[in-house]
Amino acid sequence: MSVEVRIPTILRTHTGGEKIVTGSGDTLSALFTDLDLRHNGLSGRVITDEGALHRFVNVYVNDEDVRFTGGLGTKLSDGDSVTILPAVAGG
Amino acid sequence: MVAHARRDHPDEACGIIAGPAGSDSPERLVEMINAERSPTFYRFDSAEQLALYRSMDDHDEEPVVIYHSHTATEAHPSRTDVKFASEPNAHYVLISTRDPETAEVRSFRIVDGEVTEEAVEQTGDELAVQTYKIGHTPTSIVYDCAEPR
């Protein structure tokens, strides 16, 4: 199975400048483990040491914010599209 | 940007100005919802942000300016602003609405945690922003751009 992952500008240092990469996994968590094999350090920018999604990184699977679909446990299917967008925020 | 900031005061206002990728030219202003609705914090609504980035992608654009307002402090990036700055190519514009008569507008680059101020040059009608008037009725907000005296 194969999933397309859209990488924001600030994380392209981990993908050699690539805007879109591919990976596989039954869940979002598995996908990030897979991505890290080829793009070292990528998952560490999205997942905290405690194993949760960073509060200020938005991850979407097929346009749905994964906060509403089960977070890192979100199930993935072949052909799904995952987008990562660091939150635009400040104080 | 100033109109948006004044309208949303005392909550922080936020938005972007998109421009053609690589052009460094801000052309299309998009006001964004502050999902935090707070006088001290802002955050783009996550679904709105996705729609925005998709739209920019479709039009081969990127965020040239990312702006937000400070409602009680100076128009300078706070520690939080620096911590969350995630677009290294953008100009971060701060507008302070702490004074109801005068808006402070300043622009910064924020790259790898480093803040560099850049000059803002006013073009066009110098007094248009300073003479901006806002009228409120119970059901609508009316804008009056006064002619410079």
Explain the layout of strands and helices.
The complex is a heterodimer of chains A (about 90) and B (about 150).
Chain A: E1 3-6, E2 20-23, H1 28-38, E3 57-61, E4 64-65, E5 81-86, E6 89-90
Parallel strand pairs in A: 1-5
Antiparallel strand pairs in A: 1-2, 3-4, 3-5
Chain B: H1 2-8, E1 14-20, E2 28-32, E3 42-43, H2 46-58, E4 61-70, H3 79-84, E5 91-96, E6 104-111, E7 114-118, E8 132-136, E9 141-145
Parallel strand pairs in B: 4-5
Antiparallel strand pairs in B: 1-2, 1-4, 5-6, 6-7, 8-9
Describe the structure.
- The complex is a heterodimer of chains A (91) and B (149).
- Chain A has 91 residues and is of the alpha+beta class.
- Chain A has one helix spanning 28-38; strands at residues 3-6, 20-23, 57-61, 64-65, 81-86, 89-90.
- Chain A has a 5-stranded mixed sheet, with helices on one face.
- The mean pLDDT of chain A is 96.
- Chain B is an alpha+beta fold and 149 residues long.
- Chain B is built from 3 helices and 9 strands.
- Chain B has a 6-stranded mixed sheet.
- Chain B is globular and about 40 Å long.
- Mean pLDDT of chain B is 86; it is low at 130-149.
- The A-B interface holds A 8-10, 56, 58, 60, 63, 65, 67, 83, 85-91 and B 12, 14, 16, 32, 36, 40-44, 46-47, 49-50, 53, 62, 66, 68, 77-81, 83-89.
- Strand 6 (89-90) of chain A pairs antiparallel with strand 3 (42-43) of chain B.
